[in-house]
UniProtKB/TrEMBL annotation:
This is Semaphorin 5B. Keywords: Developmental protein, Differentiation, Disulfide bond, Glycoprotein, Membrane, Neurogenesis, Repeat, Transmembrane, Transmembrane helix. The gene is SEMA5B. Residues 1-20 are annotated as: Disordered. It comes from Bos indicus x Bos taurus (Hybrid cattle). Pfam families: PSI (PF01437), Sema (PF01403), TSP1_2 (PF23260), TSP_1 (PF00090). PANTHER family: SEMAPHORIN, SEMAPHORIN-5B. GO terms for molecular function: chemorepellent activity; semaphorin receptor binding. GO terms for cellular component: plasma membrane. Its main location: membrane. It is a single-pass membrane protein. It is found in: Membrane. GO terms for biological process: axon guidance; neural crest cell migration; positive regulation of cell migration; semaphorin-plexin signaling pathway. Residues 15-465 form the Sema domain.
Length: 1064
């Protein structure tokens, strides 16, 4: 968006130019993910590129459209950031903010804050990722990114930097480094030289380096005020000898005067930006009022000759802190950095006296601007940046000012000596999106490219200086009063002077500010911040949030329409909550016995909002129901009976048990339960088949023969018949002589073979055919068997040939893995006793997933494992205490319980009913009555009579007496040995109890009871090495055990140590 302004008045408040062309199509934009603070822009027109320094990044952009040529990350390392944060700085501060960026030859010199650890480097101008040199950034770059600083590199390669050079920001300095000359700085911690300065700009001009700044005025006696200054130093300064060593000897500073003239001038004291126009030897500066004053801004221009005149004038000097600042004549009125002709210690020193240099540096006269009045002024706005362009119009040369504001706009104005054009604003460039307001970070101009480059917090913009083609008519072109544009009569278009076809037909009309008496419709400005406000709604009131906007962007003029739309926006009004009607009562929670019903309401009629009161009262009500509908007697299972005998003694059998349904025959669940038993394998049983008949296998020519018979051994782990397997085959052979002398029984087949003699046909012995396929396994799991068969048909035995040798069937184990088990519920347990005898209780029953339990990886049981139901829903009689627990079952199979009346004086309806109850015992709790003979027999075997008790007491008494006597005799024996030993006593007396030489030797030691030390007393518990110590009158010194173990014993140890090692 763009708005043009203009009038002869020096302010812009009422200047309303023609409707401007739209700025958006003309602007080129550059952003980069993660990059912020695009505050340093360095121009390199010879290579058609713009060098940009942002937070943690460096960029090379095209001057034509700010397209990206190269991006290089330049961030602080993790250790530096961590060290910065440990010093109390935030994560936002502990980044690398570029604060110095200067193109010099084929290199780019840059400095960054580097997380409060400044660093500088030189890089190739065509490849920012390649570092040529890296140096310390202290005194060249500030620690804190919020500190203002400036720097310039002279033609001799010397860096002049104006910044703070310590972590706390309390040591400002103008510092020279690099180059061939020695480093110099301003006097340290001397507020008369620099008093909390904010450095704005630095320039290398002739023999001097100039610095523009603002600082607290030391010469101002009435309170604190800020003055704008220009300071300079000689570039050939080498410092002093013995005085002002490593310190400037040519430092001087003078005040810059930018004010509105009058009987009482109005001063713009704070310099914000400066721009050097070398073609005109001019310095333009942007000045504002103090921060806590009314916002106002101005632009003033200063000649270099006026600056030199101020430095050639008298100084202002203060003799002592209590004296006034008085003018003093300048010892060298036209000082031009001359040096002394001497050779020796003072060689190369400037002609200024070191004493004068130390005390005379503040000039008495201020630098006056080119014109008495500022070039441009603006009330209620603070300027922040300034660049100037020289534009050759048809009749004269114009200075076009581009002024950045703290709200993010750029004002385009003329600087001229003509009173009719003084303070003319040509247009206001809105480079930020609508509704966004923030100060510009930097502003640079490229005269050759006719472009303006704007640094923002999140990117860089390129704005062309002229947009003549946007004016479609001659009236709009000439009425804009833009020095860049004129009307080309031949081509009938608005163009620049360079683009005109014929200068004689190219016209301009810059005789006054842009016209303002044009009809313009009003437009709303931005919304104000949200503020609390009150609203009334009948008898109720509440708070809301309100915001408004004014119809001033622009205001309607000359019959223009007012703004369309609301000027006030109200939101988030508070509202008190109210209840909805009660819902209907829900169904009773039980079908019999005491239950409850519920009804509800909600605080949503309306719901409280934005701080309104919530509803008071309950959102839920309950009441009893079915009080007079008792539940039928519960039907439940009796306790399980005992398990039956296992159906098999081995190989896995089944046991069962039963239960009965009490109070009916419709109990849910199973009345019979089974479980496996005797899972161990049965022993293997072997059985032999009967012998087969004898069969001839070999008949000789003489009539002798051999016969064979067979039988088979069968084995199986009984009683499972499916596990039966054939065993090995046994074979017997006998020889029958031809004469029949041997006993050899034969059957008819054998006799026939013998009778046939040698005339029998050729004998053919049998051969096995191939094995048939395996049969299917007899079981799917838990070890089955399969078999295959073959026949003796390859060939069949003929004419007395031998039968096939071997088994006709073969068996093999299969499917040995366990059968998968899917989980199944067991039967429900019996209902538990009611939790209350009256007034409503509950009982429950459970079941488990164990019939059978699922094997790993198989399905688990689905459904509930616990059920509950109400019981004892009848009202409790008044006055009775709760029933006691049921007593144990008597021999008659009856249990009882009782209660008592708690009323002292029971009324007619109190304590009604019985005070005791009885019931048959459950089946599982009925005591077993054994026959009398069995009871007597058990008593006679396991009883403990009075005779046994007396005999036991007498035996214990006699045993303890004998044990005491043995201990006593043993102690006497050990005492006799200890009195004869000399190793038990230490060589020196106990110093704690020694009373002098008159005490007997045995009284020099304090008796102490020895106790065996275990692992809790620093000595390892090794009971194999314990030696028993008798509790006798052993005398020793008080001993503090050291951490010794059984391996620490040394023969040369003291007796006390040796004794304790024995105890360890």
């Amino acid at each position: 968006m763009l708005a043009q302004l203009g009038a002869p008045s020096p302010t812009v408040t009422e200047q309303l130019p023609l409707p401007p062309p739209d700025l958006k199509p003309w602007v080129s934009n550059f952003t980069y993910p993660g990059a912020q603070d695009f505050s340093q822009l360095a121009l390199d027109p010879s290579r058609n590129q713009l060098i940009v320094g942002a937070r943690n990044y460096l960029f090379r952009l095209s001057l034509a459209n700010v397209s990206l040529l190269q991006a290089t990350e330049w961030a602080s390392n993790e250790d530096t950031r961590r060290s910065c944060q440990s010093k109390g700085k935030t994560e936002e501060e502990c980044q690398n903010y570029v604060r110095v960026l200067i193109v010099t030859g084929r290199k780019v010199f840059m400095c960054g804050t580097n997380a409060f650890s400044p660093v500088c480097s030189s890089r190739q101008v065509g490849n920012l990722s390649r570092t040529v040199e890296k140096i310390n950034g202290v005194a060249r770059c500030p620690y804190d990114p919020r500190h203002n600083s400036t720097a310039v590199i002279s033609s001799q390669g010397e860096l002049y930097a104006a910044t703070v050079i310590d972590f706390s920001g309390r040591d400002p300095a103008i510092y020279r480094s690099l180059g061939s000359r020695p480093p110099l700085r301003t006097a340290q911690y001397n507020s008369k030289w620099l008093n909390e300065p904010n450095f704005v700009a630095a320039y290398d001009i002739g023999l001097f380096a100039y610095f523009f700044l603002r600082e607290n005025a030391v010469e101002h006696d009435c309170g604190r005020t800020v003055y704008s200054r220009v300071a300079r130093v000689c570039k050939n300064d080498v410092g002093g000898r013995f005085l002002l060593e490593d310190t400037w000897t040519t430092f001087m500073k003078a005040r810059l005067n930018c004010s509105r003239p009058g009987e009482v001038p109005f001063y713009y004291n704070e310099l914000q930006s400066a721009f050097h126009l070398p073609e005109q030897d001019l310095i333009y500066g942007v000045f504002t009022t103090n921060v806590n004053s009314i916002a106002a801004s101005a632009v003033c221009a200063f000649n270099l000759s006026a600056i030199s005149q101020a430095f050639n004038g008298p100084f202002r000097y203060q003799e002592n802190p209590r004296a006034a600042w008085l003018p003093i004549a300048n010892p060298i009125p036209n000082f031009q950095c001359g040096t002394l002709p001497e050779v020796g210690p003072n060689e190369n020193l400037t002609e200024r006296s070191l004493q004068d240099a130390q005390r005379l540096f503040l000039m008495s006269e201020a630098v006056q601007p080119v014109t008495p009045e500022p070039c441009v002024t603006q009330d209620s706005v603070r300027f922040s940046h300034l660049v100037v362009d020289l534009v050759q119009a048809k009749d004269t040369l114009y200075h076009v000012l581009y002024i950045g504001t703290e709200s993010g706009t750029i004002l385009k104005a003329l600087s001229t000596t003509s009173r009719s054009l003084r303070g003319c604003y040509l247009e206001e460039l809105h480079v930020l999106p609508p509704g966004r307001r923030e100060p510009l970070r930097s502003l640079r101009i490229v005269h050759s490219a006719r472009a303006l480059f704007v640094g923002l917090s999140d990117g860089v913009l390129r704005v062309p200086l002229e947009r003549c083609a946007a004016y479609r008519s001659q009236g709009a072109c000439l009425g804009a009063r833009d020095p860049y544009c004129g009307w080309d009569g031949k081509q009938q278009r608005c163009s620049t002077l360079e683009d005109s076809s014929n200068m004689s037909l190219w016209t301009q009309n810059i005789t006054a500010c842009p016209v303002r008496n044009v009809t313009r419709d009003g437009g709303f400005g931005p919304w104000s911040p949200w503020q609390p406000c009150e609203h009334l709604d009948g008898d109720n009131s509440g708070s809301c949030l309100c915001r408004s906007r004014a119809c001033d962007s622009p205001r309607p003029r000359c019959g223009g329409l007012d703004c369309l739309g609301p000027a006030v926006h109200i939101a988030n009004c508070s509202r008190n909550g109210a209840w909805t009607p009660w819902s209907s009562w829900a169904l009773c929670s039980t079908s019999c016995g005491i239950g409850f019903q519920v009804r509800q309401r909600s605080c949503s009629n309306p719901a409280p909002r934005h701080g309104g009161r919530i509803c008071v009262g309950k959102s839920r009500e309950e009441r009893f129901c079915n009080e007079n509908t008792p539940c039928p007697v519960p039907i439940f299972w009796a306790s399980w009976g005992s398990w039956s005998k296992c159906s098999s003694n081995c190989g896995g059998g089944v046991q069962s048990r039963r239960r009965t349904c009490e109070n009916g025959n419709s109990c849910p669940g199973c009345g019979v339960e089974f479980k496996t038993c005797n899972p161990e394998a049965c022993p293997e049983v072997r059985r032999n088949t009967p012998w087969t008949p004898w069969l001839p296998v070999n008949v000789t020519q003489g009539g002798a023969r051999q016969e064979q018979r067979f039988r088979f051994t069968c084995r199986a782990p009984l009683p499972d018949p499916h596990g039966l397997q054939f065993g090995r085959r046994r074979m017997e052979t006998r020889t029958c002589p031809a004469d029949g002398s041997g006993a050899c029984d034969t059957d008819a087949l054998v006799e026939d073979l013998l009778r046939s003699g040698g005339a029998s046909p050729l004998m053919v012995s049998g051969g096995w055919a191939a094995w048939g396929p395996w049969s299917s396994c007899s079981r799917d799991c838990e070890l089955g068997f399969r078999f295959r068969k073959r026949t003796c048909t390859n060939p069949e035995p003929r004419n007395g040939g031998l039968p096939c040798v071997g088994d006709a069937a073969e068996y093999q184990d299969c499917n040995p893995h366990a059968c998968p088990v899917r989980g199944a519920w067991s039967c429900w347990t019996a209902w538990s006793p009611c939790s209350a005898s009256c007034g409503g209780g509950h009982y429950q029953r459970t079941r488990s997933c164990t019939s059978p339990a699922p094997s790993p990886g198989e399905d688990i049981c689905l459904g509930l494992h616990t059920e509950e139901a109400l019981c004892a829903t009848q009202a409790c009689p008044e006055g009775w205490s709760p029933w006691s627990e049921w007593s144990a079952c008597t021999e008659d199979g009856v249990q009882s319980r009782d209660r008592h009346c708690e009323e002292l004086v029971p009324g007619p309806s109190a304590c009604a009913g019985n005070s005791s109850q009885s019931r048959p015992c459950p089946y599982s709790e009925i005591p077993v009555i054994l026959p009398a003979s069995s009871v007597d027999e058990a008593t006679s075997c396991g009883g403990f009579s009075l005779i046994h008790l007396v005999a036991t007491g007498i035996s214990c008494f006699l045993g303890s007496g004998l044990l005491t006597l043995a201990v006593y005799l043993s102690c006497q024996h050990c005492q006799h040995q200890s009195q004869e030993s000399t190793l038990v006593h230490p060589a020196t007396p106990n110093h704690l109890h020694y009373k002098g030489g008159g005490t007997p030797k045995n009284e020099k030691y304090t008796p102490m009871e020895f106790k065996t030390l275990n692992k809790n007393n620093l000595i390892p518990d090794d009971r194999a090495n314990f030696y028993p110590l008798q509790q006798t009158n052993v005398y020793t010194t008080t001993y503090y055990p050291s951490p010794l173990n059984k391996h620490s014993f040394r023969p040369e140890a003291s007796p006390g140590q040796r004794l304790h090692n024995l105890g360890s």
